[in-house]
Q: What sequence folds into this?
């Protein structure tokens, strides 16, 4: 993707490494909405994880910015062992205070535009089984669920990216 995707109120651009604290905070706010008992404390150092995503030469992290504040995030790359025309959306979050305002749709459209420009034909993601709101969002955008394994806490979904 060349340049920023901008509207009068929103810019979609690459996240800067200096913005990692804002990214981690948004990530925590968004994830907290689908864990009824609160965010699990699994020992993940999310600052280190996001810093790694931001500096990977083979990955991208886009953000939606409104009023100089990051309100949406998308992290993606070709997953290890996958064909080169496959991309995986590893993280996709919209600040809960900005749901239903078009942030997610605009950010998703920017991702799809970039994926197609990069020759990707297949997109994958995993969404938490309890996150029904996100599952509905992805389905509305054309993502299809794949069969889940027993005891799986994530639903795998796929989006075909036909060439233009």
A:
């Amino acid at each position: 993707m060349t340049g920023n995707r901008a509207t009068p109120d929103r810019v979609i651009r690459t996240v800067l490494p200096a913005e990692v604290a804002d990214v981690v905070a948004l990530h925590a706010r968004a994830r907290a909405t689908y864990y009824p008992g609160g965010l699990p404390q699994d020992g993940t150092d999310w600052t280190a994880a996001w810093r790694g995503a931001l500096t990977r030469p083979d990955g991208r992290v886009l953000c939606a910015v409104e009023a100089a504040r990051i309100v949406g995030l998308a992290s993606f790359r070709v997953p290890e062992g996958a064909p080169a025309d496959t991309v995986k959306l590893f993280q996709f979050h919209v600040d809960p205070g900005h749901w239903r305002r078009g942030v997610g749709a605009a950010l998703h459209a920017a991702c799809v535009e970039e994926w197609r420009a990069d020759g990707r034909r297949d997109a994958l993601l995993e969404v938490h089984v309890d996150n029904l709101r996100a599952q509905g969002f992805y389905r509305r955008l054309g993502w299809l669920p794949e069969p889940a394994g027993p005891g799986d806490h994530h639903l795998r979904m796929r989006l075909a990216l036909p060439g233009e």
